[in-house]
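Our consortium's second objective concerns turning raw sequence data into structural hypotheses that experimental partners can test. To show how far this objective has progressed, the report includes one record in full. It was chosen at random from the queue rather than selected for favorable results. The single chain below, 288 residues long, was entered without modification.
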Amino acid sequence: MLDEMRTFVLLAEEGSIQKVAERLPLTQPAVTRQIQRLEQALGAALLDRRMKPPGLTPFGVEALARSRQILAAYDDMKNLTARAEPEGLLRLGVATGLADDGFARIVGDIRQRFPQVALRLTTGWSDGLAEQFEQGYLDAAFLLSRGRTNDDSAMVGEEPLAIIASSKTALKKRDRARTLEGQPWILSPEPCDARSRLTAAMARKGYQLNIAAEVQDARLQLALVRKGVGLSLMPRRLLTTPPSGITVVQIDGLDLMLDIRVRRSPHLRGLGKVVDLIAEQLRSSVRN
């Protein structure tokens, strides 16, 4: 009925069906039909057709005021999605493997670019974040996975993982593939995204994981690797300059790639710009 209300308001302003038809533009019969449809929907006459030209009935005067209010409210509601700057609360899930200093820099940039946006960050393993997203507790989530997915996620980029070891006990190149199965590992508890990828890659080669320690804290993991307790995994982008006492172990033919994917609510409105920028900067960080 919005079109009919607009036509009715124009008729009250112009006083002539011919002038309304010229402004819209519509034919004069089409303008008449819109007024008649509005009268039928409201169940009362808007125009006193005994007058020449027709004037508003008492009900028509009231309907005119209400129509203007409804149309103004509708325009205000449309403007919510057209604001120049996003604002409001964005509930964002971030896979643990992505929640590092690099992501902190992205958050800092977001705060500078969009000062009216408040971020509520939730970190965790991707399976748990996906469940929270599906239950409506998150507006968007950046997840880690590999291969095809059965959801509405979009690809952001790829996160290659690297095997790390103590510089003192690093495997000799000729022994790496042969002895990989028996090596102890320092890994996060299941359902860690990196651990799941390693388990699948090892299984394809017929290997099983030998877990020396399950450790959630990344700093403690690194300390145990440095002490020679076992091997572990790190994003390759963080190993441009390996930490002191740590070396990268190259294993040919072991697929340790994770996909970075984003799931987003269809109701983000202006906050979609924020999610777009985060995805763009994440894509740039893994590409570099």
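The partners drew two points from this record. The longest strand covers residues 154-166. The chain has three domains: 2-81, 88-157+260-287, 158-257. Both points have been shared with the crystallography group to help prioritize constructs.
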